Amino acid sequence: MDTRHSSRVADRSTAERGDLTRQKLLLAAIDVFGRRGFDGATTRELARAASVNLQAIPYHFGGKQGLYIAAAEHIATMIEARVGPARDAVRLRLEEARAAATPVAAGDARELLARILERMAEMFIAPESEPWARFLVREQLEPTEAFQRVFGKVMKPLLDLLGTLVGLILGEDPESEHVRLRTLSLVGALLVFRVANAAAMAHLGWSAVGPPEMDRVRDLARELALSIEKPRGRP
Prior knowledge:
This protein is an all-alpha fold. It has two domains: 3-61, Homeodomain-like (Arc Repressor Mutant, subunit A, Orthogonal Bundle); 72-226, Tetracycline Repressor, domain 2, CATH 1.10.357.10. The chain contains ten helices and no strands. It has helices at residues 3-40, 43-50, 56-61, 64-99, 106-125, 130-141, 145-170, 177-195, 197-204, 211-226. It is globular, with a radius of gyration of 22 Å.
């Protein structure tokens, strides 16, 4: 019997079990921390929610604080997976235009903006983003290192790119306060479907979100992008 082969198989099996335990803890932590907050959640409750041994938390994350930070980073990774491809495609288009010294027309910028907003709308209204929102809303109210991890990894790069497109449409400096405000207002118009989901559903008379409702929110995202215009009288 090849003991080296057996050892490799055993090591791989152990690693896979470890990965599964980490994944279960991360998903449970996002939900529990979102509902209880950092102080309200106990390690026992976290382990029970993940159906793992209590010692798995210090073993894999060093303790509750480490798990909390890792949960925030996991949210950032999941957001990245959903909006990253559209964001990267837009970024590539802008880089190509810059390399060719060809300005991006306002109409093209609106189309690029619409693509990203549509992906964001899909993510915000999807049920899977509910536990992320609970976690992040707490961080919005009382920011910690976890907020900085998510903001730095996905929020700021996305806001900066949206601001670049809004600036191109308006013919203004993307770093200006006006462009930043317009950019935030776009995101807020879609974020309401997650952070004020109950109010949005009640106001619209929707009992659930299916393909038709998703299409309408996606259409709204495109309308928002196409509606960006320079205010009259603004230089």
